[in-house]
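QA checklist item 7 of 12: single-chain prediction sanity check.
[x] sequence parsed
[x] length recorded as 279
[x] structure emitted
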Amino acid sequence: MKKSFFSLAIIGFSALFANGAETRNAVAETACSALPSSVLFEKQTWTEIQSDIACGVTTIIIPVGGTEQSGPYIAVGKHNTRVMDIAQKIAEKSGKTLVAPVVSYVPEGGISPRTSHMKFPGTITIPADVFEKLMASAAKSFQVQGFRLIVFIGDHGGYQKSLDKVATQLNKEWFGTQAQALYVKQYYSVIPHQYAQWLSQHGYAKDVGMHADISDTSLMLAIDPTMVRLDALQKSGTPSSVQGIYGGDPRKASASLGQIGINMQITAAISAINDARNK
């Protein structure tokens, strides 16, 4: 029995619709595969960022550094350079992740009287409440754009509790939505714990301290050796707190030792991000 003209029209329309859907899907897949290769938020246009989000790039890392003295042998931008470099590696390995501009103004001590690292030239500080408002506002900026996982990683110990506090507050505000804030405590904690333990177990127990020690210096050498005054360090005498070196001895520092710690930080952060995505 011959099909009616109406039936043939329906079949033709369905086929056309199906072909159109396939074409649109193919175009969408092509567009997503052509996303910018850089994971840096600040190196993309707003339209590229919009496309990233539409294609599932909904995780963003906010790297937090700090500008502080690190003894006579490490440049004051240590934390900023280090956290940005590591954040990029975390984003590349995690996939579907961008990296926000680094936050370099953080609490570093008092101004009057001068306390903590503010006792030395080269340090910049802001009040803790200002820092917390800054972090919350940055996270909300990303959330309203469509990012669903906003990740805080901090390279300096002085504001870790503030990052935890802000993430907790944001998650209360965002309860019931698709967004969540993630404070990756492990990114920082592996350095004074697992990494310090590894160094101690491999013959560097006396060299491990609290600040600008073998750990700090090795991490910096692995990221950017131009920020370490290695010749002066190796010719120096026994380090002291007067120099801004708090415990330990940085003179045996090396890039190869630093890479061990960096790998620990990357692994810890990726694990935390994956766990948050799978909740």
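[x] summary fact logged: Residues 8-18, 20-28 have pLDDT under 50 and may be disordered.
[ ] second reviewer sign-off
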